[in-house]
Amino acid sequence: MAIDRIHDYIVPGKRAHLVGIGGVSMSPLAEVLQGEGLVITGSDVKESPAVEHLRSLGIPVVIGHLPESVEGKDLVIRTAAVHDSNPEIAAAHALGIPVFERAQAWGSIMRRYENALCISGTHGKTTTTSMCTHIAMAARVDPTVMIGGTLPILGTGHRVGKGKTIILESCEYCNSFLSFYPTLAVILNIEADHLDFFKDLEDVEHAFRAFADLVPPEGTVLANGEDANTMKALEGKEGVLTFGLEKGTFHAENLTWDHGFPSFDVVWNGKPAVHVALQVPGEHN
Fold this sequence. Notes:
Rossmann fold; ten-stranded mixed sheet
């Protein structure tokens, strides 16, 4: 099914059923879709705090996967762990109800935001997305956020905001991030990972290059200029900004340490732009 078709369904009044609705990126998706005016129902295999929270918002959630749960729905959205053999998915196919992946739904939602910050990489996605969330919260831009872990400032791994910015941890597994519409794509690093899906390192690099190519001409690709695999993947691509500890469009100078916590100047195009004192330790941060 063509990815673009989902945009015809993410509209007010449509009835969407989410299979695996209690998942880490499915429960915030349900909230955002409800905020967009869709009528949301869902199912999951067990009770959870996320399920309880969704019910408190007026979203009915059934425990167990029952074919009748999809009857009368306009679309079904499933988590990556749910396959065609699932009773609800099988019933949706039999009834001619379109079935979409979670990443496709997030991608469609992303198009409604002026700023879509998508943070990718083999390592460091959750930490970097969390840092960006702290910055956006401090800047009071009221962001919508999706992180693959719990962030203490949020008390959860997501936030539904009303601003013009969305910040998403963007995973390469199963090419999920290729359903996104980033205006700013960050690539932290690239290694041979998820080899149950990718053939080899070159295949992984091709996926990240395709992710970078999703950014429109007026957008930005920001990549780790000190990571050889990342630079290989982006070879020949114009307009890429780089970052690094010692070199790049953005890099650190005057690095000092206070009990393991780094302080440094951020140099932008050869000039100090801002001083940073991190509250997390380690050179990798």
